[in-house]
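Need tokens for this chain, all 286 residues.
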Amino acid sequence: MIFVKLFQTMFVAAGFALLAGGGGALAQSTVLATVNGVEITEQDIAFARAEIGEQIASMPAGQRRSNLLLYIIENQILATASQSEMLNEGPDVEALMKYYRRRAMHDLYYQRKIRDAVSEAEARALYDAQVAKIIPRTEVRARHILVKTEAEALEIIERLGRGTDFAELAQEKSIGPSGAEGGDLGYFSREKMLPEFSAVAFNLEKGEFSEPVKTRFGWHVIKQEDKRESKPPPFDEVKDGLLSEMVRRKAVEVISGLRKAAKIDILDPDLKQALEAAGQRGSFLQ
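Here are the structure tokens for all 286 residues:
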């Protein structure tokens, strides 16, 4: 971490600045702060966001930018201290910088040739193709009250017949995990529940409750709340997941091709044996 600022300075000219993405040269060079005279720019923020953006994603949006700036300031302070104590010299540092350069070029290639090669339009096309294959299914939304005996179930039915609210009675009497939610099971398809449970739930009318229904869990009183034909989730709800999966597949495809084209010799016999034992020979050892 203490070499981040030095690392950035060395490789901006070599193309690592592309990791920042967009914004234009003028915007990227905007100075946001200085630390002992060293400028921290908008481009530094972009670098930091690429590095630790996922780690601060749970923060409120208004705090992320300021936390990125504090992160860079700390890096600069430590980098300066490292230089003043001559920690930035010697073969170990050179090896570390070589490692960072390799990682930088890895990240650059990953962004430009893998991540940016997957477009939202492609994700939408995949979504549309998958949606076209979906056969709509009937779903019901139901509540239930689970008790141990048929006598208890009959008593519940009697109370429902006198106008007791189903959800309140579920909270009072149900021994099932949905009792705290008023027995609400949400929407489900027929095959998601036990056959004897679904047979009753799907045959009820909306707002109707059942006679006692026995399953291996006990005795149920079921109320149907609604019935509908299932619909696929909207594209915007699944877009990020689709893009992530497409990027993952693209990475496997690209990296696999690069590995096959590379001449890889594992010289350490223990590591070579371990890779072979793990079934990696086809991927790594050509």
